[in-house]
Amino acid sequence: MTTPEHPGARETLIRVRGLRTQFGSHVVHDGLDLDVYRGEILGVVGGSGTGKSVLLRAITGLDTPAAGRIEAFGTEVLGASPEERERLDQRWGVMFQDGALFSSLTVRENVEVPLRRIPDLTPELRRALADLKVSLVGLPYRAGEAYPSELSGGMRKRAGLARALALDPEIVFLDEPTAGLDPIGASAFDSLINTLSEALGLTVFLVTHDLDTLYATCDRIAVLAEKRVLVTGTLPQMLEVDHPWVQEYFTGPRARLARGAGRSDTKPEAE
Ligand SMILES: Nc1ncnc2c1ncn2[C@@H]1O[C@H](COP(=O)(O)OP(=O)(O)OP(=O)(O)O)[C@@H](O)[C@H]1O
């Protein structure tokens, strides 16, 4: 299937070509291509088990694919030297579905973990920078002193985002950030993603099942199906795609609800 859009000549931050991932004989991706452009919020959708999380992990070097090329900021992720890898890790942040926080550390200490990679950063400055990130994601100051178990699910997700933002990355990878949140909490998280994208020029790679989030935040969508990125495009373009899963997902009853009565901060149609 062709890719019906290209948002002008934009800088490609991440370029994936011919990606193949597999676990034993189970092939998850085969011949997957994807570009992520600077400054965009890209929503990655697909049925359960189509490999959205595996793609995120492959791009960020957490899983090693069987074949293909992944380029981030012009650097080959696969086969990057430890020094290159360190530089890449400073240019992206990853927020996992459950926040993946260390339960024995306070929120501030969790956010300080990536900051420990910066040589010569005094403990006082590290702490101050962590507090800044905690407030950047809309958590109250006292949340920095709380342990993850003392926070609500929504606050834990924000804490996970604060840690992902610790090193001022250019791109954040968010794995189902609104999963498990009530609609008000999910809507607040959508607004936070939009605000951070606009204020910091942050690029966002967003794995989600949440149609409301797609409508509220995403500039572009990539659909995973048939072991690859089947199609990319804007939301209006998705409505024109002639593929059963895409049709069902974007024009089914839940999609109509999301489109019609979307959250209050629904993003205007991109391009
Ligand atoms: N470490 C692993 N070992 C074996 N199989 C794995 C591993 N990680 C993922 N898989 C398999 O790869 C496939 C894709 O998994 P992935 O978690 O990426 O799907 P997903 O699209 O994110 O699904 P969901 O929407 O349900 O979260 C699944 O069949 C999963 O069982």
UniProtKB/TrEMBL annotation:
Coiled coil: none annotated. Residues 14-251 form the ABC transporter domain. The keyword ATP-binding applies. It comes from Salipiger mangrovisoli. GO terms for molecular function: ATP binding. Pfam families: ABC_tran. It comes from the Bacteria. The keyword Flavoprotein does not apply. Keywords: ATP-binding, Nucleotide-binding, Transport. This is ABC transporter ATP-binding protein.
